[in-house]
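ABC transporter ATP-binding protein
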Amino acid sequence: MSSQYVLETRNLVKEFKGFVAVNDVNLQIRQGDIHALIGPNGAGKTTVFNLLTKFLIPTRGQILYKGEDITALKSAAIARKGIVRSFQISAVFPHMTALENIRVALQTAEGSSFSFWKSGNSLHRLNERCMELLDSVGLAEFANTTTVELAYGRKRALELATTLAMEPQLLLLDEPTQGMGSEDVDRVVELVRKAAKGRTVLMVEHNLSVVSKLCDRITVLAQGAVLTEGDYQTVSDDPRVREVYMGSDGSGERGASAPEQENLEAAQ
């Protein structure tokens, strides 16, 4: 493995009772890149993400992080190495304040997440860092707001802040703009760009306009396999990509959803 790759998969395969969901996938994620994993519905993107974060075990193949084979490691072990995933569905505590959510994440990073019986005063030393993280995602003024009261876009920003509290070296983002209006999407694009400074980011994202603005490199999956890879211009000019996004791929399988087709056209 070249030292420029922070994450690599070799011939990664995942089968479910004979169905091949991920088929011989080879990824090479370069240090410092924002790398997108895209493809039409059912392409295998989420399955690959679940393999990388050890929520699923590969049927065959290897996963390497900084040259180390991490295929057999558990999800907690890879998190300790600096691989942290932000989930598609907002993973914050709804009845805690924004600041309290960040503080829990900081406690987890320090290994003291079960020390809830301690006096609140003993946790105040974490508050300065909490406020720095909230400010970095534009939520400083909402520090004492209960999370359930935050607008959807702000909840996603809070989720990103809790993820950053874990000090990730490799940040995995699962549909960071899912379900957002255009104003929130633009805000999250800027947040991801800011969060990527000094880090490597791998993201699954349906919104191809977001991908075109953010990503250094893109891997396109189709039917569980890598279709093509390159920068946005290279990928968007590939007729095979248009084929899988704009309709039938010739095998009788349905292509991309209408929103995905519109995203591809809009991002051209």
